[in-house]
Design goal:
Blueprint lengths: L3 H19 L1 H8 L7 H32 L6 H6 L6 H7 L1 H16 L13 H20 L21 H4 L2 H10 L11 H8 L2 E2 L12 E7 L18 H7 L2 E4 L2 E2 L5 H10 L22 H7 L3 E6 L8 H7 L4 E3 L19 H13 L5 E6 L23 H20 L8 E7 L21 E4 L7 E3 L4 E2 L3 H8 L6 E2 L13 E5 L2 E6 L2 E6 L2 E6 L15 H26 L7
Parallel strand pairs: 2-7, 2-8, 3-10, 4-11, 5-6, 5-7
Antiparallel strand pairs: 1-12, 3-9, 8-9, 13-14, 14-15, 15-16
């Protein structure tokens, strides 16, 4: 309770800053000494005032719902999402009609109660008007900077004032958008010599055939939309919403400490396919580095004789997936545009329902030349969380709307594997199943620094992979690319921030949220704040307040090692992006 006044006062700084930015035209026109003051001019001021406040309110209204999915304020990637052909704005207006009505009512009230006069009857003397102009302009300048700081505050600076769990309450969505737009290009980092960072991370790899496979297996990667650990029974030791995955996990190699590298779909593809973590203020696909040279898993596998393809039931161009995959290697991209029944199986929002699309995917695989590497990205478990009319009374879900769609997608997976098991290619195929990121939860743990990234990751192949549970290793999406290259027996050296999942070595996961970079080595979580490092021990399913910060001497040794690991990765990642050398030439 004692923190709330600081949270409130810190939030006021960011709110003033947003008001100054988004009402800048109104302020300028209001303060001009030669303001004519007639009715038309006053109407212009009223319109700019309403528009500026309207934008601020709209962006915050959007995050009232979107925050539940992303667990963070929206940045410039919001405009990419809105402009996505597979994500019509009208669907959000319809599905969140109460917010739409509240926004319209708010805009009406702002316009109606605008305090400006219709005309200015008595003008101040020019000298007073001029002094007022410079005085108020000076105050606005201070407000735009967020106070008397040496530089303008940005959303990342919120952690200077409050604990990280309060950051989203302190900043506002307009500030986050401005910050993410203006901070897309980081400065070079020099925590250590480049040679030392390379020695710590060991990004230059040459995979061997760890499993001693006699032939090149087919590789199928299934990425499940918004499947957090919270929904999976086999990761919770209790019945949840994934009965099929629960049964499949008993025949799979399961990694129980698996983490996503971001909280949005657009952050997952670079991590999964090219081992690029999400450490910028904007997703890599939306950043200034989006046209850098990238060599993804399909680049190496296609050169090693694999037929590479990617399937996503949304419109082509959705989220920029096709552009990224095209840049990062030779791959065939299939979208809703190629699906044979685009209208009949269309969900009305994102694309094709998961059940028919996964059946279509199974049929497509049967027509591939072996060996093949093919990926599919599901979409039904995305907002607005609808299921086909025929299943409305079949899947009951739970406390949250997403639960029913998770049940539906889990069922769609069962139907996919039922079809796949009948195909000749099945016995020589290795399936990797994971998620792009977690989503809503009723459990506060899944909004913690570790819980907000926890996802399922399992490898299934009854004939080729020994089933079991790996409770000791911490793994992430960055480890999928080197694992694919290992399974595909690629001998060419490559650059990767991840590690082959079949290597029995200590592994870590790395994330960045609101400027706070962190490294996870379960149960340890080390975070880099402006004032320095903090490490805590965060056991699963326990809320933030139960995290332990007092470290034993042995744990302090672990902290020192993780500090080096984190700094080395931040430096290697940043400098290689700046130098366009995030690959082996």
């Amino acid at each position: 309770m004692g923190e709330l006044p600081i949270v409130f006062l810190s939030g006021v700084l960011f709110d003033i800053q947003a008001m100054v930015y988004f009402l800048s035209v109104f302020h300028l026109l209001s303060l001009l000494p030669f303001n004519p003051g007639n009715k038309k001019y006053q109407l212009t001021l009223r319109l700019f005032f309403t528009l500026g406040l309207g934008i601020i309110i709209l962006l915050n209204f959007i995050d009232m719902e979107f925050f539940k999915i992303k667990t963070r304020r929206s940045g410039v990637e919001l405009f990419q999402l809105v402009s996505d052909q597979s994500n019509p704005v009208f669907s959000y207006i319809y599905n969140y009609w109460w917010l739409t009505l509240l926004l319209l009512l708010t805009l009406f009230l702002i316009f109606y109660f605008y305090p400006g006069q219709k005309t200015i009857q008595h003008r101040p003397k020019p000298v007073y008007a001029t002094v007022s102009f410079f005085l108020v302009t000076g105050l606005l300048f201070i407000g735009a900077r967020g106070g008397f700081f040496t530089y303008p505050i940005m959303s990342v600076d919120a952690i200077r004032f409050v604990d990280p769990r309060w950051v989203s309450a302190v900043i506002n969505s307009p500030t986050q958008i401005i910050t993410s737009y203006t901070s897309a290009v980081p400065a070079p980092l020099h925590y250590m010599s480049d040679e030392e960072s390379i020695e710590i991370v060991k990004p230059y790899k040459r995979e061997s055939n760890t499993l001693k496979l006699k032939t090149k297996p087919n590789l199928v990667l299934i990425i499940l939309e918004s499947f957090g650990r919270d929904y999976c029974g086999f990761l919770n030791k209790e019945k949840r919403f994934t009965p099929f995955l629960d049964s499949l996990s008993k025949e799979s190699l399961v990694f129980s400490n698996a983490y996503s590298n971001g909280t949005t779909s657009v952050e997952s593809l670079p991590a999964i396919f090219a081992s690029i973590p999400s450490l910028l203020e904007v997703p890599y696909i939306n950043s200034n580095f989006q046209n850098n040279v990238v060599k993804g898993a399909h680049h190496y596998l296609s050169k090693n004789g694999y037929d590479c393809s990617f399937y996503y039931g949304a419109e082509k161009g959705s989220m920029g997936f096709d552009n990224f995959l095209k840049i990062s290697g030779e791959i065939s991209y299939y979208s809703r545009n190629e699906y044979p029944s685009k209208k009949g199986d269309y969900d009305g929002h994102w694309g094709i329902w998961d059940e028919p699309y996964l059946q279509y995917f199974a049929g497509e695989l049967s027509g591939k030349k072996t060996p093949f590497f093919s990926s599919v990205f599901t979409l039904t478990s995305h907002d607005p969380y609808k299921v086909p009319e025929a299943y409305k009374n079949v899947f009951k879900g739970g406390d949250l709307p997403i639960h029913r769609t998770v049940e539906y997608t889990d069922y769609a997976l069962s139907q996919f594997f039922e079809a796949a098991r009948k195909q000749t290619w099945f016995d020589n195929t290795i399936f990797i199943i994971t998620a792009d990121h977690p989503s809503h939860s009723k459990n506060a743990y899944f909004y913690s620094p570790t819980g907000k990234y926890e996802i399922p990751l399992l490898i299934y192949s009854p004939k080729l992979i020994k089933a079991g549970i790996n409770d000791s290793a911490t793994v992430s999406q960055l480890d999928i690319m080197p694992t694919l290259l290992n399974l595909g027996q690629v001998k060419e050296p490559f650059f990767s921030m991840g590690v082959n999942l079949f290597e029995l070595k200590n592994r870590i996961a790395i994330n960045k949220d609101y400027g706070v970079a962190q490294v996870i080595e379960y149960p340890y979580c080390l975070r880099l704040f402006p004032e320095g490092f903090k490490m805590h021990i965060h056991n699963k399913f326990t809320p933030n307040e139960l995290a332990r910060y007092e470290l034993t001497d042995a744990e302090k040794v672990i902290q020192a090692r993780l500090e080096k690991e984190l700094l080395a990765r931040l430096q290697l990642y940043t400098n290689n992006l700046l130098n366009n050398s995030y690959y082996l030439k």
